[in-house]
Structures are given as C-alpha cells and as structure tokens.
Amino acid sequence: MEFTIHNQILLIVFGLAFLMGGIANKTNFCTMGAVSDWVNMGDTGRMRSWLLAMAVALIGVTILEATGKAVIGTSTFPPYRTANFAWLRYVLGGLMFGVGMTLASGCGNKTLVRIGGGNLKSLVVLFIAAAAAYAMLWTNFYDSVFGDMVSATTINLSARGINSQTLGDLTGIGNLIAGAVVGLAIVIYAFISKEFRDNKDNILAAIVIGLIIVAGWYITGGEMGAKWKEFADFADTKPLRVETQSFTFISAMGDAARYAMSPTDTSLVNFGIVALAGVILGSMLWALISGAFRFEWFVSGSDFVSHAIGAVLMGIGGVLAMGCTVGQAITGVSTLALGSILAFLAIVAGASATMKFQYWQMMKDS
Hints:
- 71% of the residues lie in helices and 1% in strands.
- The chain has one domain (5-365).
- The chain is globular, with a radius of gyration of 20 Å.
- The protein is mainly α.
- It contains 17 helices and two strands.
- It has a two-stranded antiparallel ribbon.
C-alpha cells in the first residue's frame, strides 16, 4: 500500500499525541485538577501550568503566522476564528462541559490519560461521551435542540466590518501585537509564582503540550498541510476532516463512534481519531514503565450514574462549545479567538460551581 501524505500526517499526529499522553500522565497534567486545586485548596500550580500551555501555544501560532510558516485563517476545524460570533454556544457549551468533566472525574484529555493508566471507569465515560458527541455531530440532534437558539443569538461580525473574532481584529491592533502582549502577560503571571517555578513537572507539561498544539497547526497549516489538502481533493474517496487544525478531543470522540460503525471505511480515520489512540497508548506506556498502571472500577451505582451524566454533558457541551479544555482552552486560545476565551471561562465557572456544590452537599450529609 502506498504511504501517502495522508498516512504521513496521521503518523506524525499519532506520535505527537503519544508524547502528549505520556507527558500528561507523568506530570499529572489535569485541567479539572487545576480547577479543583484552585477552588478547594487555593493552589494555583496546575492552573498556571494550564495557562502557560495556552501561552506557549499562542506565542507559537503567532510566530508561525508572522513568519509565514503556517496559515491558520478562518477556515479551520473547528472554525475558531469565524466572524459568526455564536457567544451563547461558547458559554452554554462551556458550562455544560465544566459540570460534566467534574462529574466524570476529568476532561476529555484526562479521560484518555486515565484509560491508559487502566481506569475502566474512564473507558465507560469515553463510550458515553463519544455517543453524545456523535449525536451532536452526525445526527439532527444539534439542530433540533440548539440550532434556533444559537442562530438567534449569533452576531455577524463581518456585517460590522470585522473580519474575524480574534482579539487582533476586534481591537484593531492585529494578531501579531495581540498575541505577543497576551502571551507575554500569561508567561509573566505563570512564572511570577516561586512555587510554580520550583515545580518542574508543571513547567514541563505546559511547555511540551503547548508546543504539541503548535506542531499540529504547523503540520496542517503549513506546506505539508497544503499537500495534504491537495491529495484529499484528488482522492477517489476524500478522507474525513482534511483541514487546518490542531488537537481537540470531544469531536474526535464523536468521529470515533462514527468510524466504529463502519470500521472498514478507512477514509473515516482522521486527525482526531488517531490523536485519541496516541494519547491513550502514550499514557499506558508511562503507566507501565512507572508501575502506576492499575485497574479501577465504579465503587457504587451512584458513582456510575454521576460519571454517566458527566459523560453526556461532556459530549454535548464539548461539541456545542466547539472544544474542550484542550480543544478550546489551549488550541482555540492559541488562535486568539474570543469564543475560545469565553468557552475557557465558562468551563472553569461550570467546574467551580459543581465542586462547590459537591463540597456543600458533603458537609450537609456529614
């Protein structure tokens, strides 16, 4: 079988995701944990790590665009920079995802990392979230439930003379200046904490994961990506989602569910599906090497119900918000899209509120 540019892209993506999974497991990089540490203990270490990953990705994308090494533009998957600013879907989807990831004990990326470590609860979460994401992506569920509401609240920025929802276009200062200012401000905030500077794992996770996001944009938005898109245009059967993109996991779960229904159709194997497999296997390798691999199952029926509800909210909310704690809060923020920033804030708000409610309920029952 010919080793096409499509195969090359998928192999590189798998390698990057494999590294992401291993690093996330080794360093305990966890966005839900970041919120939990901050809300419950006042510890901002993992939150600073999450923010630093955003800054690394943002600065990297700014450099790629300034040097012409990649063209991100408005035609990406998902369409982060679209001029149709659907603020409600970012906020509502983000809130749903934040609640869901708290109930399910981890975001999309952490779910994959936990599966690699032997957590069977997270495997169940993956199956349920994938089914919910499939319904949002590949059936009329989104149009029936959210379509009219989202359309009615969407702001057409292009009608107001604004090309996209990036901070550079919205402020008029351009993405180069906006990216440099925002990226540098986040880096300063992260490293101003001595406790954070002393935690090598938090720094390692942020830098590596941020650079992996940049690599995804470079591969699909640069010269290699142009050849990939040309290959797809002339292919007898066009592969799914051959677009400029980087790492995001909830829509990938929905695509994986679709592929599972037609496993002989290799055109359905895409960037996202390969990334899912890479993160799981990378995490598994580290878990085996470190001796941390162990099976875990639900401790009670209520534990299962909580995780199942969380998984549904993650699948629906993640697609509605057009991304998760990686797909929007790191990959999306790297494009300077206002919607990505809104989604990030909504995810944090949803998770924080859920954690506070869980703590209140625990105190009430004790």
